Amino acid sequence: MPTSRQLLSFVALLACALSVASSTCAASGPALRPDILLLMPDQWRGDRLSAVGHPVVKTPTLDRLANGGALFRRAYSTCPSTPVHKRSRRLRAFPIKHPTFPALLAEAGYATVLVGRNMHQNAPNKSIGYQRELLGSTDLSDDDYDRALRAAAPESRDIRAVIESLGVTTNFWQAKPWALPRELHPTVWVAARARSVITETAPARPLFLTASFYAPHPPLFPPQAYFEKYLAATLPTPARGAWVKWDALSPDGDRNGHRI
To answer: d(Cα 207, Cα 12) in Å, to the nearest integer?
Structure first.
């Protein structure tokens, strides 16, 4: 990330950020309004980090964040299901309440920006406090990412056509390497757009930036180098809950297409 702006861990700053609109923070002046970067992947297990000793997965960028800040090894969600968890986290409470966290920061003078996936975060046809949204949901046509993809690679038709042509899906285990230039991969696009937002935001204005990644949620189409690296690796046995009858499960998923 550019060194011109100090980007701090979302979790470490949560307490101060939630009170940033209060008289306590306001009276202290803008020096106590730090920039906040929220990195939000989808379906990433907490133990899939080299910072916590995973024997195969290498995550050097996230390791640097963990080693330079606070690493929570026992963080639990009141509802780990994607829709409710994402909505409740953005809205500051469970069950869902208003006003939203981004809206509070916007009222306190922050530039609030969402880059990437917005599924399960915004109410229908409404923003929840983001003043700017650059949307890239990977499974949807005609959002900002899809338009950029079609402009750079017209032969792709759109992201859904790319998914179909690779023979992968948005909920199954199939995996294929990404077939287009690396810079057009949705994960790379979200990171690049997030960097642009940081560069474009006036240094005097505090920034709350959410970089919301679809990956590692399916479709599983990593860049070729990563596909080959992990396909050839000897992976540890998957974690399995003792309450599930694993022998009775089909690798094809159930009739609704779910993985278990």
So the answer is: 16
Which residues are 42's β-sheet partners? 216
Helices (H), the chain: 14-18, 23-27, 60-67, 82-90, 101-107, 144-152, 159-166, 186-200, 224-231
**Please, which residues have CB within 8 angstroms of residue 259's CB and are 6 or more apart in sequence?**
171, 172, 173, 253
**pLDDT 10s digits, 167-192:** 999 888 889 999 999 999 999 999 99
For residues 136 and 119, the answer to whether their CB atoms sit within 8 Å is no
Number of Cβ atoms within 10 Å of the Cβ of 140: 17
Interatomic CA distance for residues 198 and 37, integer angstroms: 10
Given a cut of 60, whether residue 30 has pLDDT beyond it is: no
User: pTM for the complete prediction?
Assistant: 0.80
Residue 82: predicted pLDDT: 67
How many Cβ atoms from other residues are within 10 Å of residue 159's Cβ? 23
Cα 91 → chain centroid: 16
